Every structure is written in C-alpha cells, then in structure tokens.
Amino acid sequence: MSTLKSTLSWLLPFGSSAGSTTTTLNIAHFNDVYQVSEHKVNGEAIDVTKFATLLEGITTKWKNREDGKKDGLIVFSGDLFSPSIESSITKGKHMLPIINAMNVDIAVVGNHEFDFGYPELTALLGTSAFPWLLSNIIDTNTGKVPEPLREFHVLERAGVRIGLIGLVEEDWIPTIVGWPENFEFKDMAEVARSLSVKLRDPAGEYKCDIIIALTHSRIANDITLAKEVFALSPTAQASKDISTEHGVDLLLGGHDHIYWISKGVTEWNGYDVNIPLEDAQEDLGDVLVVKSGTDFQDLTDIVLTLRDAPPESVRRKIIQEIRGKRYTTKGETPVHKAIKDIYDKEVKYIEDSLKEPICIIEEELDTRSSYIRTQEAITDCQLGLRLRSSQGYGKADGTLSNSGDIRGDRVYSPGRLSLGDLKTMFPYNDSVVVMEVDGKTLWEAMESGLSRWPSQEGRFPSIAGFRVEWDSRREPGQRVLGIWLLEESSQLTPNGTPILVDKEPVARSSDRKYLIVTGEYLANGGDGYTMLKDQKLVINAENGQPKNQLVKKFLGGLQLLNRDSREGTRTLDSLKAGQLAAAAFSAADHKRVGLLDPYERSRAQKHLSECTLVECAECALYGLSPPLEGAVGAGILDAKQDVLRAAGDEGERSLPVIRPFVDGRLRDVAKM
C-alpha cells in the first residue's frame, strides 16, 4: 500500500490562517460501469452485488441526516447504460433499478449513454432517482441544455452548499453516430467559469460554498481543464490565491478505464500517485483530479477538509486537504443481499424475454462451423453489411470480421428468429472499432484470414464493402488473387441477389488509406490478425458499440421503418439492403423503438403484473401511465393491458423479414 503525504504541509495557502474554521465533506466516487453480472478481473470473480457491499461499507460510516439521507455524496461520472451483454438486450433498462438502489446523488452522462439514441436516453432518465448533468452541451432549438438533463445541481451536505456541474470533452462527440444535429458543444472551461459566477454569487439564489465538476473526459484534457478553472491542490495554493478566482474546486472524472489520482492530493491509501502515466505528464502536483477505474472494479472514498476563505472572496470555502482510499472489489467481497434481489429480478426479466421473436428469416440460416469457417456464408455476409452501415451510416470503405464471432453451430429453419437465438449467435461483447489501413495491410489481413483453410478456424474472414478472389489450391500466404472496392449497386441477379460492381482495385503495394470496420479483438491482433495491431483507430473500442448490440439495433430500426411505412410489405428487398441498413440505424438513433422491442414488451408485461401504483415511472416509460382514455379506478389496469396487447399486435406486424443471401464477395476460384 502506498501513501503520499504533502511535503509542503507547513505552507499556508494565500488568505488562510492557523485558526481558520474547517469542515469535513465525504464523497464516494465511481465511473464507467457496464457488466453487472459476474466477470473475472485478475482471476477474481466480481459483480455489482459485491461492489454494492464496498459502497455501503463507506457510506455507513457517514453521519445520518434529518431527512434520512447520509451526510455525504455518492457521485457517478458517466457510462452506465452500455455496453454489455445485458445492454445489447435491454438498452440499459436493467441498470437503473440497481443504481437507484445504491442511492447515487448525482451523475454526468458519458458517451455510451447515447448508444441507443437520445430519445431512448430521455426515456431511461425518466426512471432515474437522481439527476443527470450535461452543462456544456446546448440544444440550439431551446438555447438550454437538452432536457431532461440539467445544467447544474445544488446539494447541501455537512452544512456545505455544493454546486455540481457536468462537463464532457469534445473529442468523443464525433464518434456518436446518432448525435443530434441541434446539440452544440461549448468549451468546458468557459462554461465552468460562467457557472461559477452564477452559483457562487453571494447575492444570488444558490450561494455555493464549493463547486465540483463531474467530467467525462480523457485524463490529459481533465488536467488541462483543472489548470484553467483553478482546481488547484493545497500545495499549489501556496503560490496562487484561488479564493479570488472563479472556477471549480475539484474534478471527479470518468471515460478513462483506469484508476488514477492526481499528484496534488494530501494522502491516498491503496494507490501510488507517482506511477508514471503518459497521458498525465502535465500533472505537476498542482491539480485535483480523481478517476475511479471501471466496471465495478474500483471505488474511491474521498474526504475533503474545507477551510473558510477570507471575507469578500469569490470562493466561500477552499480545499485545505484531500485524502482518499482506493477500494477494490474482490472475489471474497460479500454479496449485498438487497442489491442481489434486484439483480436477480432484472436477470429474470432478460431470461423471460429471450423466447420473443425479433425477426423472420425466409431462408435457412446456417451457423455451423463446417460452413461459416470454410466459405463465404450467409450469416457472415449479413453481419458484414450491417456493421459497415452502423458507422456513420456507411462512411466506412469496408468491414472485416472473423467467422469465430458467430456461434450456435446449428441450422436455423425459415421462420421466426428469437431474441435468444440472436444472443446465441452473437455471444461476445466485442466492440466495433474503425481503423485506417493501407492496401498492403488489407492484403496481409486477407492472406492471414484464408491461410488455415480447410481447417475450421475462427479467423476465416467475413467481409463487406469490398470483394476478394482467392485460390484455395495455393500455398498459405499466396492465396489472395485480388481485392476490389465495391460500388453501391441496384442491379440484381434473376434470384434477387445484388450484382457486385467493382469500384476500384486495391493494390497489394498501395499506400492509400481505407477505413475498415472491425472488432476490438481483431484490432488487437487476435485470431492471427497481427498486422491490424497498432493501426490508427478512428473510433476506438471505448467509443465503439458491441456487434451483438448493433445487430439488435439494426433489427429494431427496421421495425420502426416497417411501422412507419405502412406499405403492406415487410420483406427487405436485396435491392435496398444497403440503403435500408443505413436508414434502420438512423431510425433507431432518432426514435424510440419502445414496445415494438421484444424485451421491452416482455418486461412491461411482467412489471404490470406486479405494479400496484396508479402513477408509476416505469409504467410511464412504456407509455402505460394515466391518463389513459376511459381509464378510471380498476379500469386503469385493463387500459394498460389493452395498450400492451395493441403493442404486441403492432410488434408482430412490423417484424422485419430477412432474406439471407450469398453474393460472391469472397470467391474461391478453385470451386468455380
């Protein structure tokens, strides 16, 4: 265990005196949590129920308030609803009941809060027991922060009035495909200073003693921000009087999936602040920034000692000391019984929904290894097309996946495909990335993917956006005959599959750059794709979404299109496959699928059988809240059931019909 103690504790900051009044403020902080179910970290099996025990162990030491709350703050710094295996089914709905029960006080949104589109996020926040911040994004239609997010929030703890603001970096906004066009970024430091003026005004409404910024931003950007807004350490205050400066007192950040504490803290147990980190080179011990790891692995216990600032100062209180402790969830950490009960209920909701249909297939869908790992396969072709369309709705040049992504090892007969079938086919939480590669690298990747044929290896490639001719008779490493980028084509063969139209060849020696959609696993050199490792990432895994989540999102978007078109046909004509894929993702980003979604319908039905409230936030999420036409008294339940039945009928009518096909984009000339 490492401990840092200030070597300049004998120095008194500007404007302080040995007799200054001090106040203690307790904070528990965490960020970037995804997988509530059991997962292994350094060989230890942890889950959200064990994390909850750690959190309660911290908060039970806090004083009780008259209002029944604890006299401290529980703060969350973004990325709750996605990505995870569970979220690919629930769109994050399983997370809020669990986090609500942990008594979180305040949160800032992270980039993954937008994975299912802003309308879905808006609906989710309607069931949140705590406010969510987004201070530096403006809805240009209203001139205010987007509803229902808040520009700031003020709480009182330990007699201290605390202004809380939420700031996000600009860097991750371009990676959100469905980012609303009317959402405008504002400089983090400028917004922080402006809100400081408003919240600290001694003649104003809020009269805040301190301001804490919740951020979802990279470490380097947080360090820069901390310097700009004078979130300075006690030692740095010895040479800079911050009591006269508007800004922020402390940054509690997320987005980086590591545990990191700036060097300016007074004392920290369980973490060595002097461990070098490339992104933290500008941390000279002068700033106060806290990052609390990821995925229910880490939790931070923070104790602030605040002193009164001199009279007439801009800041009413100053951080005199900041001490903390890192808590790490272990395999032997006890399970929190109350959270376990909620978790079990959420898992049951998921399990009950798996039998619900999500689409209809018109042809057999073969996921056997003997098929998909030795030749161009229907499933591979469909996956490649959808993943390409998911990133900027088709801006990528192509897609490269490995057939090992697809599981099930069975043939699905024509008819209804269930949510459980989809989960079986795509069991991995492999996030999509977009990388920049040259022609040479693309050729090497294809040679590697085809090198183990006829062995049924998971590296066998699945592609879209380009076609490849290869010869299985040749020696490994010499099998690729040519690669061509493809045009979007409207030409069809007599059986209805697209005719591939070459756009341009990809030369083996070409240094031209191509944008390729792939998975994090391959991008890290997995399954023999070592040439992809260390290639430039335009969208990295932390900003990407899992493939299984994107497939479900695509199907949900198709349901929206089917519902809205009312043209009497649900079959996806291959002629329109590319355009429809882009349109489906766009629809899913800008509209709520709602009760068309099989999980949401199943969950709503189970919830309704248990709900005894006339007005209920979760019922409102499903559109089942009063006033329902003609519903009074006992008739309210009947009215809600009628809404669900109608939604089930519409869900059935709008089920997308998929016509799988193979079009020759990965052609073995030895079999021609």
UniProtKB/TrEMBL annotation:
Residues 26-259 form the Calcineurin-like phosphoesterase domain. Keywords: Hydrolase, Nucleotide-binding, Signal. Belongs to the 5'-nucleotidase family. One of its GO terms (biological process) is nucleotide catabolic process. The keyword Nucleotide-binding applies. Residues 1-18 form the signal peptide. Gene3D superfamilies: 3.60.21.10, 5'-Nucleotidase, C-terminal domain. This is Metallo-dependent phosphatase. GO terms for molecular function: hydrolase activity; nucleotide binding. Residues 378-534 form the 5'-Nucleotidase C-terminal domain. It comes from the Eukaryota. The keyword Transmembrane helix does not apply.
